[in-house]
UniProtKB/TrEMBL annotation:
Keyword Lipid biosynthesis tagged: no
Protein name: UDP-N-acetylmuramoyl-tripeptide--D-alanyl-D-alanine ligase
Coiled coil: none
Keyword Oxidoreductase applies: no
Organism: Limoniibacter endophyticus
GO BP, one annotated term: cell wall organization
Gene encoding the protein: murF
Length: 473
């Protein structure tokens, strides 16, 4: 796939002005000097923590073909020996390039949002659609006010499919992003208590997610979770947004993509799905009932794109969980194998319960235990104590043998679990690390999950580095 812009057109799109001798062609777009490729345009975006203008030297060293800078920064940066495009606002300039890239693209565009499962669904859809053509999708979780424009600005003009993940933690954030993306299909995976601290309740979260309907192209589709308690509200909001085609996926008898049988295993799931007037069988190469639900959305997208459904279903068998989202590692401890389930990327009540359910089905060796290593679920506001404590009943019901906890919010869960199950609590991930290393042994299945900023990914790294097996299970 090719990503190129004529320099004159590039400047005109942004409404900028050239400074120095621009190269004839721009070969890509970057906002990070660590990954910037030679010949790309470096957009010096000012973020919450870093200002891209402070990385001019690094951009030059990485081989940037041109820098896009803010007008007020030119006096400080004009001395650098690199062509520049000067604009009033660098992020707005990136958005303009994104809009132009979307307009020139012939790709079928799918936008994905939801309280959980966005990235996993995006990656599964990337995997499946690659069987049918060239696919452009967001890197990692590039789903915010700069990640979505960056993804679209990088959209090759010859891609067959484009997948755009759109996140939010406040009302009004999805609306401008989906209007850039202009999807043919918009998917909402689930409405749950993520970022609840910024909302009055789940209905308000649903309304914020429903902003995705406002950017669907005329004649496009909304694909929604038919089993979600907010289905009716989302359906109504899609109709208000004049979306003509609203379809559902799930076990519900009225779902257009309907799960009719599901056998959950420790490493995969076998499913039967009714769609398009027939039933198909498929193996999903990643475990978990929540994964199955997301795969129904993937098959629904394939159906709406008029692709070979059986071929799409077969591709699900080769699916593997992403890093931090269920990826498994085998650890060799004292000559025996333990299983590590890495769920350290993020956490909310819905995804926490789903991960605990996966731990319940994980295979353990003789004498092995199921160990949950849990950190704070963030951005829950005043609801946090109740939602953390509410995990207790679920943990006990799933037959978890031992729970290791860390974080300020997890004190609520620790208090409830005391005297009901074996539990160890420490104030943070660093303090929990030696406890974890002293505890885990061969035959165990260990699941590590928390919100990203809690730093639990370091616990995964420590176990993998200590016990030597970096190859995922």
């Amino acid at each position: 796939m090719s990503i190129s812009w004529n320099s004159d057109a590039f400047v005109e799109i942004m409404g900028g002005r050239p400074f120095g001798n621009l190269p004839s062609t721009i070969t890509g777009v970057s906002i990070d000097t660590r990954t910037l490729q030679k010949g790309e345009a470096f957009f010096a975006i000012k973020g919450d923590r870093f200002d891209g203008h402070n990385f001019a030297t690094a951009a030059i060293g990485a081989g940037a073909g041109v820098m896009v800078i803010a007008e007020h920064k030119l006096p400080a940066l004009g001395r650098f020996n690199i062509p520049m495009i000067v604009v009033p606002d660098v992020l707005v300039a990136l958005e303009k390039v994104a809009a132009a890239a979307r307009i020139r693209s012939r790709a079928k565009v799918i936008a994905i949002t939801g309280s959980a499962g966005k990235t996993s669904t995006k990656e599964a859809l990337r995997h499946v659609l690659s069987e049918f053509g060239t696919v452009h999708a967001a890197d990692k979780s590039f789903n915010n006010h700069w990640g979505v424009p960056l993804t679209l600005a990088r959209l090759p003009d010859d891609a067959d499919f484009a997948i755009v993940e759109i996140g939010m933690n406040h009302p009004g954030e999805i609306r401008p992003l989906v209007k850039l993306a202009q999807p043919h299909i918009a998917v909402i995976t689930l409405i749950a208590a993520a970022h609840l601290g910024h909302f009055s309740g789940l209905d308000e979260i649903a309304r914020a997610k429903a902003e995705i309907f406002e950017g669907i192209v005329p004649g496009g589709y909304a694909l929604l979770n038919r089993d979600d308690q907010r289905w009716k509200l989302l359906d109504e909001l899609a109709t208000e947004a004049r979306v003509r085609h609203v379809l559902g996926f799930g076990e519900n008898a009225r779902a257009h993509v309907r799960l009719t049988d599901c056998r959950l295993g420790s490493e995969h799931s076998d499913i039967r799905v009714a769609l398009d007037g027939k039933e198909i069988d498929a193996r999903v190469g990643a475990p978990g009932r929540h994964v199955v639900q997301n795969m129904l959305a993937v098959l629904g997208c394939a159906q709406l794109l008029s692709l070979d459904i059986e071929k799409a279903a077969n591709a699900l068998g080769n699916l593997r969980p992403e890093e931090g989202r269920g990826r498994r590692h085998r650890l060799r401890i004292d000559g025996e194998i333990a299983t590590l389930i890495d769920e350290s990327y993020n956490a909310n009540p819905a995804s926490m319960r789903a991960a605990l359910d996966v731990l319940r089905t994980a295979t353990v060796g003789e004498g092995g235990r199921r160990i949950a290593v849990l950190g704070d679920m963030l951005e829950l506001g005043s609801h946090a104590p109740k939602l953390h404590a509410g995990l207790a009943e679920f943990i006990i019901d799933k037959g978890i043998d031992l729970v290791l906890l860390a974080g300020d919010e997890m004190t609520a869960l620790a208090d409830v679990l005391t005297d009901k199950i074996a539990v160890e609590y420490r104030p943070d991930a660093n303090a929990l690390e030696p406890v974890l290393l002293d505890t885990v042994r061969g035959g165990d299945a260990v699941m590590i999950k928390s919100s990203k900023s809690s730093g639990f990914s370091k616990l995964v790294e420590t176990l993998v580095n200590r016990y030597g097996h970096k190859t995922p299970a």
